[in-house]
Design brief:
single chain; about 260 residues; mainly alpha; globular
């Protein structure tokens, strides 16, 4: 599949923004999945598999950085990794057997759920809310469910996973980020392999998106501390992307441009 110059440019720009969003808040897959389905026109299942290429590259780089900074505690995290991988393998199996139409239907309704999550108590995204601890025993089924969700679609996985690590397992935010990145990297290796085995990965487009995501994540991590109100602008951009994606998926955008 050959991309036009416009498609290529928008794919690079969008994946760059997704990498920046993932670095600042998470949920960059809202952008990349929307690009793959709405802009490039990949079928739902193929878009879902192709999206994992960028996820793998980005989390690989982040995991290496966390490991070098001694933030990775694999001993404490081993049960989390195992539970999440079990869930992810179940999730990716379901993702490979649903039809393209079913995937897109699920995707557009999950966008609505994600918009509600993002709009409720915006201060949580701006680092101003208090943390309420939840029971530890609740973490076992939660990590399996999170793994299933990540294996199935990935969108929003980083946000939900980070929240559970801090709220349920009582990790510090920085340690939680390190564990989250490593867990997603590990299960993405397996998930991407399964998608590829089923012929659901467009490697050419996936690598293009991966370059943009990795570059966006790296430059954002490097320069975002110098930018005033960066979290606020990242939050606003995330809300805009989700709303735009919902309008496209439900065919409502044409009502605003006619």
């Amino acid at each position: 599949m050959n991309l036009s110059l416009l498609q290529f440019s928008l794919a690079m720009a969008g994946s760059f923004i997704a990498g920046a969003i993932n670095t600042l808040a998470g949920n960059g897959s809202v952008i990349t999945l929307s690009i793959l389905t709405d802009l490039i026109g990949l079928p739902g299942n193929l878009a879902n598999g192709t999206n994992r290429v960028g996820v793998l590259f980005q989390t690989a780089g982040s995991s290496a950085g966390f490991a070098q900074s001694k933030m990775m505690n694999l001993f404490r995290s081993k049960h989390i990794i195992v539970l999440t991988i079990i869930g992810a393998l179940c999730g990716v199996y379901c993702a490979t057997i649903v039809s393209n139409e079913d995937f897109l239907s699920i995707f557009k309704y999950l966008l609505i759920v994600m918009l509600i999550v993002v709009l409720i108590k915006p201060e949580r995204w701006l680092g101003e809310s208090d943390i309420v601890k939840l029971p530890y025993w609740f973490s076992v089924p939660v990590f399996i469910v999170l793994g299933f969700y990540g294996g199935f679609i990935q969108m929003g996985m980083g946000i939900f996973f980070l929240a559970v690590l801090v709220l349920v397992s009582k990790f510090s935010i920085m340690e939680a980020n390190a564990v989250k990145t490593m867990v997603i990297f590990i299960y993405t290796i397996l998930v991407l392999a399964i998608f590829a085995w089923n012929g659901l990965v467009n490697w050419k487009i996936g690598i293009i998106m991966a370059i943009g995501q990795t570059l966006g994540g790296y430059l954002t991590a490097l320069y975002s501390p110098l930018m005033p109100d960066i979290n606020l602008w990242a939050y606003r951009l995330l809300v805009f992307i989700i709303i735009t994606s919902i309008l496209i998926q439900f065919g409502l955008l044409k009502l605003f441009i006619q």
